[in-house]
């Protein structure tokens, strides 16, 4: 049987999982991330799979999710990059859209542009909004630019979404050996500022992504793993390393997207799912409707203020719509200026990690608090591969209060409330009620906090999938090959030449099909979307299109139905205009399946006190393999890569596929 191998690199842990679809055989490994060279951590995990009998010669695919691109943007560790734009527009990265994300902050900070002012160049040439040439590009002017010290170039010319000829002429005039990103290829959409930031970001990380993916492929081959490598996308789906290296901006949120896919797959038939993922560095929540995570057509990277929309760099790339906060197991706890205990957003990460890891950490973290409260077994953490130091955790938390346990309880309450607030606000923005959703909890720390967070949100059902601690890596394996293209073609619905738009959609579809053919996808599904708005409005509503030729009346009806669902009303008689058109092509998803699990002995392997509602309660500890069909809390259910905390009054059912269903009272 062939093995499929998934790899997810997080800020604290690297997760590796191998699945044999025919037999449902499965091997998991969770190892500490190696920040200086993440590939070393991957190799350590891969070697762990080999030690457990995974036959690399029979591997059919390796699917990889990574935070490399996000981290490079946040930490500003990209390559020296230049920007080439039209005369008079070199200051646009500083001007932005002139919006203020906080009207009352007189010392407002905005993200620094990825390209400094002395690396921005202007060239003659201009297109009109409809793509008509007003003045040609001068190749000689491009050749005279001083690009010394520059490793990548972003080209963003006005109205290039309507025609990429001018940008291609600039690229043709640039010297050999420089990586070039054209906005007309990366993000051919209106609004020049986000199009420019997207092109700059893609160029900024392109050489890093290419070298990293080449090194990853070589490292896997050196371990005897020569199976094709695929990369997880930010909006569900996988692509080839070649496409990922050309459009690295599309893998910004690949790990969280894979986790959301796994959450949706964990509860087939469930219409409303809340994906809840806590790792060592961040917590992420995503609302899933009708079996699909919600997708946003744009994203903000490297925010100056994590919770302030508009404080980051706008990216015209589709991503799974999730909320992410700096509240993970490694989040550092301290007192704020008012003396209140808070956790995060900075994290101890993998090096040195929480104090209880014994790797040199000195500041108390959420994991230290969970350990001191009895929610983690110090002897069974990471399948016993790492013993946790309770005394060190107690000493660290003693720096926050005279009573370390009280400090740990305060840290726990603070971090859970942060997660609840962010998840609830995200729901309100979309007109959703979290209490109407079932939660799927995963990540190393997700099951530890799931019951507490769910109870505060009013959620009554929590599912823990098989291998919850490495669910994002497992979600990589269930992803289908996919590609998506968008292009702006604005105009009033009454005046648009729909025949021309049909040809545009077909061209986008053909491009996606060509890229999927390289990924080995034969049978495909095609989705077509438009973004429409009432004339005069500044934002658009995504609308799914019918198959076949476009029809004007059908387009308006679909728009008004989508508009009414969002806003509760329409504006009859107002003209409608189109802004952009989008095509997504998806290949068949692999059949991974679930193992069939039988109940165990039902006997706990130990009993120890844990804190619930401020009181110590004797709590049985079960290995997951020993679970009975049903049990009542309190309990700890210990797995190789995660621990489920079951509060008093809750009930856990072992389902046939090995997942656990937690029902809160």
UniProtKB/TrEMBL annotation:
Residues 504-653 form the Acetophenone carboxylase-like C-terminal domain. Residues 4-174 form the Hydantoinase/oxoprolinase N-terminal domain. Pfam families: Hydant_A_C (PF19278), Hydant_A_N (PF05378), Hydantoinase_A (PF01968). Coiled coil: none annotated. SUPFAM superfamilies: Actin-like ATPase domain (SSF53067). It comes from the Bacteria. InterPro entries: ACX-like_C, ATPase_NBD, Hydant_A_N, Hydantoinase_A, Oxoprolinase-like. This is Hydantoinase/oxoprolinase family protein. It comes from Thiohalorhabdus methylotrophus. The lineage of its organism: Bacteria, Pseudomonadati, Pseudomonadota, Gammaproteobacteria, Thiohalorhabdales.
């Amino acid at each position: 049987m062939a093995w499929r191998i998934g790899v997810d690199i997080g800020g604290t842990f690297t997760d590796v999982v191998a699945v044999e679809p025919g037999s449902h055989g499965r091997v998991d490994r969770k190892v500490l991330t190696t920040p200086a060279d993440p590939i070393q951590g991957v190799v350590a995990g891969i070697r762990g799979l080999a030690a457990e009998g995974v036959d690399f010669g029979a591997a059919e695919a390796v699917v990889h999710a990574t935070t490399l691109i996000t981290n490079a943007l946040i930490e500003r560790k990209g390559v020296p990059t230049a920007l080439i734009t039209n005369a008079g527009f070199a200051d646009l990265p500083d001007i932005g859209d002139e919006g203020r994300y906080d009207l009352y902050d007189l010392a407002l900070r905005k993200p620094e542009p990825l390209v400094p002012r002395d690396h921005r160049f202007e060239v003659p040439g201009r297109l009109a909004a409809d793509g008509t040439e007003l003045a040609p590009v001068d190749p000689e002017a491009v050749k005279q630019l001083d690009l010394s010290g520059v490793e990548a170039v972003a080209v963003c010319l006005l109205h290039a979404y309507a025609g990429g000829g001018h940008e291609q002429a600039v690229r043709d005039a640039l010297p050999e050996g420089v990586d070039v990103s054209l906005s007309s290829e990366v993000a051919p959409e209106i609004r020049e500022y986000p199009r420019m930031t997207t092109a700059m970001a893609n160029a900024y990380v392109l050489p890093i992504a290419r070298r990293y993916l080449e090194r990853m492929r070589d490292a896997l081959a050196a371990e005897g793993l020569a199976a094709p490598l695929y990369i997880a996308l930010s909006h569900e789906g996988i692509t080839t390393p070649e496409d990922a290296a050309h459009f690295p901006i599309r893998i910004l949120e690949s790990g969280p997207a894979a986790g959301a896919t796994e959450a949706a797959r964990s509860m087939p038939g469930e219409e409303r799912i809340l994906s809840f993922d806590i790792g060592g560095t961040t917590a992420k929540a995503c609302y899933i409707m009708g079996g699909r995570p919600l997708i946003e057509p744009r994203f903000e990277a490297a925010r100056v203020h994590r919770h302030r929309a508009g404080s980051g760099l706008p990216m015209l790339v589709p991503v799974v719509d999730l909320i992410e906060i700096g509240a993970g197991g490694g989040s550092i706890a301290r007192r704020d200026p008012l003396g209140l205990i808070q956790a995060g957003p900075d994290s101890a990460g993998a090096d040195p990690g929480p104090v209880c890891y014994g790797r040199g950490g000195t500041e108390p973290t959420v994991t230290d608090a969970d350990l001191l409260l009895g929610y983690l077994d110090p002897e069974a953490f990471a399948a016993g591969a790492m013993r946790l130091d309770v005394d060190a955790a107690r000493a660290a938390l003693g720096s926050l209060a005279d009573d370390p346990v009280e400090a740990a309880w305060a840290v726990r309450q603070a971090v859970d409330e942060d997660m609840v607030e962010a998840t609830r606000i995200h729901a309100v923005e979309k007109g959703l009620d979290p209490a109407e959703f079932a939660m799927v909890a995963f990540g190393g720390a997700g099951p530890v906090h799931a019951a507490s967070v769910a109870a505060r949100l009013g959620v009554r059902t929590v599912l823990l999938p098989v291998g919850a601690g490495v669910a994002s890596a497992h979600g990589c394996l269930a992803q289908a090959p996919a590609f998506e293209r968008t292009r702006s073609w604005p105009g009033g619905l009454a005046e648009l030449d729909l025949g021309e738009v049909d040809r545009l959609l077909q061209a986008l579809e053909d491009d996606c099909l060509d890229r999927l053919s390289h990924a080995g996808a034969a049978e495909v599904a095609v989705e077509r979307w438009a973004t429409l708005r009432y004339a005069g409005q500044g934002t658009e509503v995504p609308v799914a299109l019918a198959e076949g030729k476009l029809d004007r009346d059908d387009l308006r009806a679909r728009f008004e139905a989508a508009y009414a669902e969002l806003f509760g009303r329409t504006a009859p008689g107002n003209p409608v205009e189109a802004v952009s058109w989008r095509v997504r092509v998806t290949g068949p998803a692999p059949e991974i399946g679930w193992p069939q699990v039988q109940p165990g002995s039902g006997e706990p392997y130990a009993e120890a006190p844990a804190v619930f509602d401020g009181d110590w309660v004797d709590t049985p500890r079960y290995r997951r393999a020993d679970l009975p069909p049903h049990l009542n809390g309190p309990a700890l259910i210990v797995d190789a890569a995660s621990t489920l905390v079951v509060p008093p009054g809750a009930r856990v059912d072992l389902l046939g596929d090995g997942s656990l269903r937690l029902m809160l009272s």
